[in-house]
Design goal:
The protein has 86 residues and is mostly beta strands. It has helices spanning 37-42, 75-78, and strands at residues 16-17, 26-32, 50-55, 62-66, 69-73, 81-85. It has one domain (12-85): SH3 type barrels (Roll), CATH 2.30.30. It is 12% helix and 35% strand. The protein has a six-stranded antiparallel beta sheet with strand order 1-6-2-3-4-5. The protein is globular, with a radius of gyration of 13 Å. The protein starts with 15 loop residues before the first strand and ends with a strand. The relative contact order is 0.30.
């Protein structure tokens, strides 16, 4: 049918997002609410993965450490990753 008719995935708004975690914070991923899920899975960012935020200035890229790798994500993508504190 039409592209605008597609059902959007529900993403709870009362949870923490990776973009909100300060530098030095340690969290684990609870859910991914984005269309780039396959890309994040290929980087090893799956629910249950422990993540350390190395740099987050609030604007620009966010740098994280996951699975002994450094990964740079845009703020827009980091806002779509739901996390909880360790």
């Amino acid at each position: 049918m039409f592209g605008w008719f597609r059902k959007k995935r529900f993403c709870p708004h009362n949870t923490n997002r990776l973009a909100e975690v300060a530098s030095g914070g340690q969290v684990f991923i609870t859910d991914l609410c984005c269309k780039k899920r396959k890309k994040l899975y290929s980087l090893g960012l799956v629910p249950g993965t422990e993540v350390q935020v190395l740099m987050n200035n609030g604007s620009g890229a966010i740098i994280i450490r996951a699975n002994n790798s450094r990964i740079s994500l845009s703020q827009a993508l980091a806002r779509q990753i739901l996390v909880n504190q360790l």
